[in-house]
Amino acid sequence: MKDDNKTSWINGFKGIIGILLFSYFFLKVFYPAMYNGDIDFSHSKSEIDVALSKSFFNVFFNGHFLQCIFCILTGISLSYKIFSAEKKEILSDVIIKRYIKLVLPVLTLSIIIFFMWREMLFAGHTFAQTTYSSYGFYGELPTFKDIFKTAFISDWFEGDTTFSISFSLLRYIFFGSFLSYILGILSWNKNKKVLIIYIFVAVAYCIADSFYLCFVIGTIIAYVIAKFDNKKFGIIGVICLILGLYLGGYPTDLESVTSYPLDFLIKNITKYRFYHILGAGLIVIGIYYIGPLCKFFSLKIMSLFGNISYSMYLISVPLIMSFSAAIFLRFYKDVNSYCSASLISFILSLVMLIVLSIIFYFLVEFLSDFIAKKFIKFLS
Protein backbone atom coordinates (compact mmCIF):
# COMPACT_ATOMS: atom_id res chain seq x y z
CA MET A 1 0.00 0.00 0.00
CA LYS A 2 1.41 3.34 -0.97
CA ASP A 3 1.26 6.54 1.09
CA ASP A 4 0.76 4.52 4.24
CA ASN A 5 1.12 7.69 6.30
CA LYS A 6 -2.27 8.75 4.93
CA THR A 7 -4.06 5.81 6.52
CA SER A 8 -1.90 4.77 9.48
CA TRP A 9 -4.31 6.56 11.85
CA ILE A 10 -7.23 4.39 10.75
CA ASN A 11 -5.87 1.29 12.45
CA GLY A 12 -5.29 3.12 15.73
CA PHE A 13 -8.76 4.65 15.71
CA LYS A 14 -10.25 1.24 14.99
CA GLY A 15 -8.52 -0.07 18.10
CA ILE A 16 -10.14 2.60 20.27
CA ILE A 17 -13.53 1.73 18.76
CA GLY A 18 -12.83 -1.91 19.68
CA ILE A 19 -12.33 -0.91 23.31
CA LEU A 20 -15.46 1.25 23.29
CA LEU A 21 -17.45 -1.65 21.84
CA PHE A 22 -16.27 -3.80 24.74
CA SER A 23 -17.48 -1.03 27.08
CA TYR A 24 -20.83 -1.06 25.31
CA PHE A 25 -21.26 -4.82 25.72
CA PHE A 26 -20.24 -4.55 29.37
CA LEU A 27 -22.67 -1.70 30.14
CA LYS A 28 -25.46 -3.41 28.20
CA VAL A 29 -25.11 -6.35 30.58
CA PHE A 30 -24.46 -4.51 33.84
CA TYR A 31 -26.47 -1.30 33.30
CA PRO A 32 -29.41 -2.13 31.01
CA ALA A 33 -31.22 1.10 32.00
CA MET A 34 -28.59 3.02 30.00
CA TYR A 35 -30.18 1.56 26.88
CA ASN A 36 -33.85 0.93 27.65
CA GLY A 37 -34.40 4.01 29.85
CA ASP A 38 -36.47 1.95 32.31
CA ILE A 39 -36.16 3.16 35.90
CA ASP A 40 -36.96 -0.34 37.16
CA PHE A 41 -33.66 -1.53 35.69
CA SER A 42 -31.59 1.23 37.26
CA HIS A 43 -28.57 0.39 39.42
CA SER A 44 -27.88 3.95 40.57
CA LYS A 45 -29.47 5.85 43.44
CA SER A 46 -29.25 9.03 41.37
CA GLU A 47 -30.68 7.14 38.38
CA ILE A 48 -27.87 8.49 36.24
CA ASP A 49 -27.99 5.37 34.05
CA VAL A 50 -31.59 6.22 33.13
CA ALA A 51 -30.64 9.83 32.42
CA LEU A 52 -27.76 8.71 30.18
CA SER A 53 -30.16 6.68 28.04
CA LYS A 54 -31.58 9.95 26.71
CA SER A 55 -28.36 11.94 26.92
CA PHE A 56 -25.92 12.99 24.23
CA PHE A 57 -23.10 11.47 26.29
CA ASN A 58 -24.41 7.99 25.54
CA VAL A 59 -22.83 8.49 22.11
CA PHE A 60 -19.58 7.02 23.47
CA PHE A 61 -21.35 3.79 24.51
CA ASN A 62 -23.93 3.41 21.75
CA GLY A 63 -23.19 0.02 20.27
CA HIS A 64 -24.92 0.55 16.92
CA PHE A 65 -23.12 3.84 16.34
CA LEU A 66 -19.76 2.33 17.28
CA GLN A 67 -20.39 -0.57 14.91
CA CYS A 68 -21.08 1.96 12.14
CA ILE A 69 -17.68 3.56 12.75
CA PHE A 70 -16.02 0.13 12.89
CA CYS A 71 -17.52 -0.86 9.52
CA ILE A 72 -16.72 2.49 7.86
CA LEU A 73 -13.09 2.15 8.96
CA THR A 74 -13.07 -1.42 7.62
CA GLY A 75 -14.46 -0.16 4.31
CA ILE A 76 -11.77 2.51 4.11
CA SER A 77 -8.96 0.03 4.77
CA LEU A 78 -10.19 -2.47 2.17
CA SER A 79 -11.02 0.08 -0.53
CA TYR A 80 -7.75 1.92 -0.07
CA LYS A 81 -5.89 -1.33 -0.77
CA ILE A 82 -7.71 -1.59 -4.08
CA PHE A 83 -7.13 2.06 -5.00
CA SER A 84 -3.42 1.82 -4.26
CA ALA A 85 -2.81 -1.72 -5.57
CA GLU A 86 0.00 -1.79 -8.13
CA LYS A 87 -0.73 -5.36 -9.25
CA LYS A 88 -4.41 -5.73 -10.14
CA GLU A 89 -4.11 -9.49 -10.62
CA ILE A 90 -3.67 -10.07 -6.86
CA LEU A 91 -7.28 -9.04 -6.20
CA SER A 92 -8.60 -12.60 -6.39
CA ASP A 93 -5.99 -13.64 -3.82
CA VAL A 94 -7.05 -10.82 -1.52
CA ILE A 95 -10.71 -11.84 -1.66
CA ILE A 96 -10.02 -15.52 -0.94
CA LYS A 97 -7.64 -14.65 1.90
CA ARG A 98 -10.27 -12.33 3.37
CA TYR A 99 -12.73 -15.17 3.92
CA ILE A 100 -10.14 -17.46 5.50
CA LYS A 101 -8.76 -14.73 7.78
CA LEU A 102 -12.25 -13.87 8.98
CA VAL A 103 -13.50 -17.43 9.46
CA LEU A 104 -10.65 -19.21 11.25
CA PRO A 105 -10.57 -16.89 14.31
CA VAL A 106 -14.36 -17.29 14.64
CA LEU A 107 -14.02 -21.08 14.35
CA THR A 108 -11.30 -21.17 16.99
CA LEU A 109 -13.23 -18.99 19.42
CA SER A 110 -16.46 -20.93 18.83
CA ILE A 111 -14.69 -24.15 19.83
CA ILE A 112 -13.40 -22.49 23.00
CA ILE A 113 -16.86 -21.12 23.78
CA PHE A 114 -18.42 -24.55 23.26
CA PHE A 115 -16.22 -26.20 25.89
CA MET A 116 -16.66 -23.30 28.31
CA TRP A 117 -20.40 -23.58 27.75
CA ARG A 118 -20.34 -27.33 28.35
CA GLU A 119 -18.44 -26.82 31.62
CA MET A 120 -21.01 -24.18 32.65
CA LEU A 121 -18.46 -21.37 32.94
CA PHE A 122 -20.86 -18.71 31.74
CA ALA A 123 -23.11 -16.57 33.94
CA GLY A 124 -26.36 -18.08 35.16
CA HIS A 125 -29.66 -17.04 36.73
CA THR A 126 -28.09 -15.52 39.85
CA PHE A 127 -26.15 -13.06 37.74
CA ALA A 128 -29.21 -12.24 35.60
CA GLN A 129 -31.32 -11.55 38.67
CA THR A 130 -28.66 -9.22 40.03
CA THR A 131 -28.01 -7.24 36.83
CA TYR A 132 -31.64 -7.23 35.55
CA SER A 133 -30.28 -8.16 32.14
CA SER A 134 -30.41 -11.28 29.98
CA TYR A 135 -28.36 -9.73 27.17
CA GLY A 136 -25.65 -12.03 25.83
CA PHE A 137 -26.64 -15.02 27.98
CA TYR A 138 -25.91 -18.57 26.92
CA GLY A 139 -28.90 -20.88 27.05
CA GLU A 140 -29.16 -24.43 25.72
CA LEU A 141 -25.87 -25.98 24.64
CA PRO A 142 -25.70 -26.58 20.86
CA THR A 143 -24.15 -29.67 19.33
CA PHE A 144 -20.46 -29.83 18.46
CA LYS A 145 -21.23 -29.93 14.73
CA ASP A 146 -23.06 -26.62 15.08
CA ILE A 147 -19.66 -25.02 15.61
CA PHE A 148 -18.63 -25.73 12.03
CA LYS A 149 -22.02 -24.87 10.54
CA THR A 150 -22.05 -21.47 12.20
CA ALA A 151 -18.34 -20.66 11.80
CA PHE A 152 -18.20 -21.47 8.09
CA ILE A 153 -21.70 -20.58 6.92
CA SER A 154 -24.47 -19.11 9.09
CA ASP A 155 -22.35 -16.54 10.96
CA TRP A 156 -21.51 -14.96 7.59
CA PHE A 157 -24.75 -15.45 5.68
CA GLU A 158 -27.36 -15.14 8.45
CA GLY A 159 -25.70 -13.25 11.28
CA ASP A 160 -25.99 -16.29 13.57
CA THR A 161 -25.65 -15.43 17.28
CA THR A 162 -25.47 -18.96 18.68
CA PHE A 163 -21.97 -18.58 20.09
CA SER A 164 -21.99 -14.82 20.73
CA ILE A 165 -24.51 -12.04 20.43
CA SER A 166 -21.78 -9.89 18.87
CA PHE A 167 -21.49 -12.27 15.90
CA SER A 168 -24.61 -10.62 14.42
CA LEU A 169 -22.27 -8.05 12.83
CA LEU A 170 -20.16 -10.62 11.00
CA ARG A 171 -22.42 -10.94 7.97
CA TYR A 172 -22.16 -7.20 7.38
CA ILE A 173 -18.39 -7.31 7.71
CA PHE A 174 -18.29 -10.24 5.28
CA PHE A 175 -20.56 -8.94 2.50
CA GLY A 176 -19.53 -5.35 3.16
CA SER A 177 -15.95 -6.33 2.44
CA PHE A 178 -16.89 -7.56 -1.03
CA LEU A 179 -18.96 -4.43 -1.62
CA SER A 180 -15.88 -2.31 -0.84
CA TYR A 181 -13.76 -4.43 -3.19
CA ILE A 182 -16.28 -4.09 -6.02
CA LEU A 183 -16.64 -0.34 -5.58
CA GLY A 184 -12.86 -0.06 -5.51
CA ILE A 185 -12.55 -1.91 -8.80
CA LEU A 186 -14.98 0.51 -10.43
CA SER A 187 -12.39 3.26 -10.07
CA TRP A 188 -9.77 1.48 -12.19
CA ASN A 189 -8.97 3.45 -15.34
CA LYS A 190 -11.57 6.07 -14.37
CA ASN A 191 -11.15 9.74 -13.52
CA LYS A 192 -12.46 11.47 -10.42
CA LYS A 193 -15.96 11.59 -11.90
CA VAL A 194 -16.34 8.03 -10.65
CA LEU A 195 -17.43 9.72 -7.42
CA ILE A 196 -20.78 10.27 -9.15
CA ILE A 197 -21.27 6.50 -9.23
CA TYR A 198 -20.24 6.19 -5.59
CA ILE A 199 -22.71 8.89 -4.55
CA PHE A 200 -25.47 7.21 -6.58
CA VAL A 201 -24.75 3.87 -4.83
CA ALA A 202 -24.74 5.63 -1.45
CA VAL A 203 -28.16 7.18 -2.16
CA ALA A 204 -29.49 3.79 -3.28
CA TYR A 205 -28.36 2.08 -0.07
CA CYS A 206 -29.76 4.98 1.95
CA ILE A 207 -33.18 4.60 0.33
CA ALA A 208 -32.94 0.84 0.84
CA ASP A 209 -32.38 1.55 4.56
CA SER A 210 -29.32 -0.72 4.51
CA PHE A 211 -26.50 -0.97 7.02
CA TYR A 212 -24.18 -1.65 4.06
CA LEU A 213 -24.23 2.10 3.49
CA CYS A 214 -21.33 2.12 6.00
CA PHE A 215 -19.06 0.39 3.50
CA VAL A 216 -20.12 2.67 0.64
CA ILE A 217 -19.24 5.71 2.74
CA GLY A 218 -15.99 4.02 3.71
CA THR A 219 -15.13 3.60 0.03
CA ILE A 220 -15.93 7.25 -0.73
CA ILE A 221 -13.71 8.44 2.13
CA ALA A 222 -10.93 6.07 1.00
CA TYR A 223 -11.14 7.50 -2.52
CA VAL A 224 -10.85 11.05 -1.22
CA ILE A 225 -7.81 10.07 0.87
CA ALA A 226 -6.15 8.21 -2.02
CA LYS A 227 -6.85 10.58 -4.89
CA PHE A 228 -6.85 14.07 -3.38
CA ASP A 229 -4.17 16.15 -1.70
CA ASN A 230 -3.56 15.32 1.95
CA LYS A 231 -4.29 18.81 3.24
CA LYS A 232 -5.40 19.40 6.81
CA PHE A 233 -8.33 21.73 7.44
CA GLY A 234 -8.61 21.83 11.23
CA ILE A 235 -11.76 23.94 11.40
CA ILE A 236 -13.57 21.64 8.95
CA GLY A 237 -12.43 18.64 10.96
CA VAL A 238 -13.70 20.12 14.22
CA ILE A 239 -17.10 20.95 12.70
CA CYS A 240 -17.43 17.43 11.24
CA LEU A 241 -16.40 15.91 14.57
CA ILE A 242 -18.99 17.89 16.54
CA LEU A 243 -21.78 17.15 14.05
CA GLY A 244 -20.81 13.48 13.96
CA LEU A 245 -20.93 13.15 17.74
CA TYR A 246 -24.30 14.93 17.85
CA LEU A 247 -25.84 12.61 15.26
CA GLY A 248 -24.22 9.57 16.85
CA GLY A 249 -25.97 10.38 20.13
CA TYR A 250 -29.36 9.46 18.67
CA PRO A 251 -30.64 6.64 20.95
CA THR A 252 -30.99 3.19 19.41
CA ASP A 253 -33.24 1.36 21.84
CA LEU A 254 -35.75 4.06 22.76
CA GLU A 255 -38.97 4.27 20.76
CA SER A 256 -39.61 8.01 20.83
CA VAL A 257 -37.07 10.81 20.66
CA THR A 258 -37.99 14.42 19.87
CA SER A 259 -34.72 16.23 20.57
CA TYR A 260 -33.36 15.91 17.01
CA PRO A 261 -34.75 18.68 14.78
CA LEU A 262 -34.22 16.79 11.50
CA ASP A 263 -36.61 13.97 12.41
CA PHE A 264 -39.34 15.36 10.16
CA LEU A 265 -37.06 14.98 7.11
CA ILE A 266 -36.55 11.26 7.61
CA LYS A 267 -39.31 9.18 6.04
CA ASN A 268 -39.58 5.42 5.45
CA ILE A 269 -36.09 4.64 6.78
CA THR A 270 -34.78 3.78 10.23
CA LYS A 271 -33.92 7.11 11.83
CA TYR A 272 -31.24 5.95 14.23
CA ARG A 273 -29.48 3.94 11.50
CA PHE A 274 -29.41 6.93 9.15
CA TYR A 275 -28.17 9.31 11.84
CA HIS A 276 -25.57 6.87 13.12
CA ILE A 277 -24.10 6.09 9.70
CA LEU A 278 -24.01 9.76 8.72
CA GLY A 279 -22.54 10.69 12.10
CA ALA A 280 -19.92 7.95 11.91
CA GLY A 281 -18.82 9.15 8.47
CA LEU A 282 -18.53 12.73 9.70
CA ILE A 283 -16.42 11.67 12.68
CA VAL A 284 -14.02 9.72 10.47
CA ILE A 285 -13.71 12.67 8.08
CA GLY A 286 -13.27 15.02 11.03
CA ILE A 287 -10.37 13.01 12.43
CA TYR A 288 -8.76 12.82 8.96
CA TYR A 289 -8.72 16.62 8.73
CA ILE A 290 -7.34 17.16 12.25
CA GLY A 291 -3.59 16.56 12.08
CA PRO A 292 -2.89 16.10 15.83
CA LEU A 293 -5.60 13.44 16.10
CA CYS A 294 -4.18 11.57 13.11
CA LYS A 295 -0.74 11.64 14.73
CA PHE A 296 -2.18 10.39 18.02
CA PHE A 297 -3.97 7.46 16.41
CA SER A 298 -0.80 6.68 14.45
CA LEU A 299 1.20 6.00 17.62
CA LYS A 300 2.59 2.47 17.97
CA ILE A 301 0.45 1.67 21.02
CA MET A 302 -2.64 2.77 19.07
CA SER A 303 -1.56 0.61 16.14
CA LEU A 304 -1.30 -2.36 18.48
CA PHE A 305 -4.89 -1.82 19.60
CA GLY A 306 -5.87 -1.60 15.94
CA ASN A 307 -4.14 -4.87 15.12
CA ILE A 308 -6.04 -6.69 17.86
CA SER A 309 -9.38 -4.90 17.26
CA TYR A 310 -10.96 -7.91 15.50
CA SER A 311 -9.84 -10.22 18.30
CA MET A 312 -11.18 -7.78 20.90
CA TYR A 313 -14.54 -7.66 19.19
CA LEU A 314 -14.83 -11.45 19.03
CA ILE A 315 -13.66 -12.07 22.60
CA SER A 316 -15.66 -9.31 24.35
CA VAL A 317 -19.01 -11.00 24.96
CA PRO A 318 -17.79 -14.47 26.05
CA LEU A 319 -15.26 -12.76 28.34
CA ILE A 320 -17.97 -10.60 29.93
CA MET A 321 -20.34 -13.52 30.40
CA SER A 322 -17.65 -15.61 32.11
CA PHE A 323 -14.72 -13.70 33.63
CA SER A 324 -16.48 -10.35 34.19
CA ALA A 325 -19.55 -12.00 35.72
CA ALA A 326 -17.44 -14.14 38.07
CA ILE A 327 -15.33 -11.17 39.22
CA PHE A 328 -18.43 -9.06 39.75
CA LEU A 329 -20.24 -11.67 41.86
CA ARG A 330 -17.10 -12.24 43.92
CA PHE A 331 -16.59 -8.57 44.79
CA TYR A 332 -20.29 -7.76 45.06
CA LYS A 333 -20.50 -10.29 47.83
CA ASP A 334 -17.64 -8.59 49.70
CA VAL A 335 -18.21 -4.86 49.14
CA ASN A 336 -22.02 -4.99 48.86
CA SER A 337 -21.91 -2.15 46.34
CA TYR A 338 -23.15 -2.74 42.82
CA CYS A 339 -21.26 0.18 41.27
CA SER A 340 -17.97 -0.63 43.01
CA ALA A 341 -18.14 -4.32 42.11
CA SER A 342 -18.98 -3.56 38.48
CA LEU A 343 -16.16 -0.98 38.25
CA ILE A 344 -13.62 -3.47 39.58
CA SER A 345 -14.95 -6.08 37.19
CA PHE A 346 -14.70 -3.67 34.25
CA ILE A 347 -11.09 -2.67 34.95
CA LEU A 348 -9.88 -6.23 35.43
CA SER A 349 -11.88 -7.42 32.42
CA LEU A 350 -10.44 -4.71 30.17
CA VAL A 351 -6.90 -5.74 31.14
CA MET A 352 -7.79 -9.39 30.53
CA LEU A 353 -9.38 -8.50 27.19
CA ILE A 354 -6.23 -6.77 25.94
CA VAL A 355 -3.98 -9.62 27.11
CA LEU A 356 -6.17 -12.34 25.58
CA SER A 357 -6.59 -10.38 22.36
CA ILE A 358 -2.82 -9.98 21.96
CA ILE A 359 -2.38 -13.72 22.49
CA PHE A 360 -5.26 -14.50 20.13
CA TYR A 361 -3.86 -12.14 17.50
CA PHE A 362 -0.34 -13.57 17.49
CA LEU A 363 -1.46 -17.19 17.68
CA VAL A 364 -4.77 -17.48 15.84
CA GLU A 365 -4.83 -14.52 13.45
CA PHE A 366 -1.20 -15.05 12.43
CA LEU A 367 -1.93 -18.75 11.87
CA SER A 368 -5.00 -17.81 9.83
CA ASP A 369 -2.88 -15.56 7.63
CA PHE A 370 -0.33 -18.35 7.18
CA ILE A 371 -3.04 -20.86 6.20
CA ALA A 372 -4.59 -18.34 3.81
CA LYS A 373 -1.26 -17.82 2.04
CA LYS A 374 -0.69 -21.57 1.78
CA PHE A 375 -4.17 -22.07 0.36
CA ILE A 376 -3.57 -19.36 -2.25
CA LYS A 377 -0.31 -21.06 -3.19
CA PHE A 378 -2.14 -24.38 -3.45
CA LEU A 379 -4.62 -22.84 -5.92
CA SER A 380 -1.93 -21.14 -8.00
3D structure, described in words:
The structure is a single chain. This protein is mainly α. It is 70% helix and 0% strand. The protein is built from 16 helices and no strands. It has helices at residues 8-30, 33-36, 48-53, 63-84, 91-118, 125-131, 145-157, 170-186, 194-207, 213-227, 234-248, 271-289, 291-297, 300-307, 309-335, 338-379. The longest helix is centred in the C-terminal third of the chain and has 42 residues, at 338-379. It is globular, with a radius of gyration of 21 Å.
Q: What key phrases describe this protein's structure?
A:
380 residues; mainly alpha; globular
* CA-based shape: globular
Averaged pLDDT, please? 89
Q: Give the proportion of residues in helices.
A: over 70%
Treating each run of at least 4 consecutive H or I residues as one helix, how many helices? 16
Task: Give a brief description.
This protein has 380 residues and is mainly α. The protein contains 16 helices and no strands. α8 (170-186) crosses α10 and α10 packs parallel to α12.
